[in-house]
Design brief:
2 helices
Length: 124
């Protein structure tokens, strides 16, 4: 190798060494930023997992509440039907009582008097 070629190689080595010295702090800064970004990513993933868990729990609770609501709706419907039937039976019974307690004008007067005397106060 010639002296000129050797000198060129030495010059390139110095330039490269200088660039390496200048770029080392930049590399360290970028590595620090990368570590910070990785830590933030890890935190974000943990937060996401927490939200997913909360969402799943909320969804499960909502499903249970919906089932309870549906059950109560059926119960309410059945109760309303039962109350309606009971009211109809009560009205029918009241009508029968009124008919039974009303004196019949077609009976002779002496029978109406006898029926009235058999009734005791406070009883029908």
């Amino acid at each position: 190798m010639t002296e000129a070629g050797l000198e060129d190689i030495q010059n390139l080595e110095r330039v490269s060494s200088g660039q390496g010295v200048r770029l080392a702090p930049e590399r360290d800064t970028l590595l620090d930023k990368l570590k910070i970004a990785y830590a933030q990513l890890t935190d974000a993933k943990q937060e996401e997992d927490s939200y997913v868990k909360g969402f799943t729990e909320t969804r499960t609770s909502l499903k249970a509440l919906q089932e309870r609501f549906d059950d109560q709706l059926v119960t309410l419907r059945l109760t309303k039907e039962s109350v309606g039937e009971v009211q109809e039976r009560l009205q029918s019974a009241n009508g029968a009582i009124l008919v039974a307690c009303t004196p019949m004008p077609c009976l002779p007067a002496h029978l109406l008097r006898d029926i009235g005397s058999e009734r005791k106060p406070g009883k029908i």
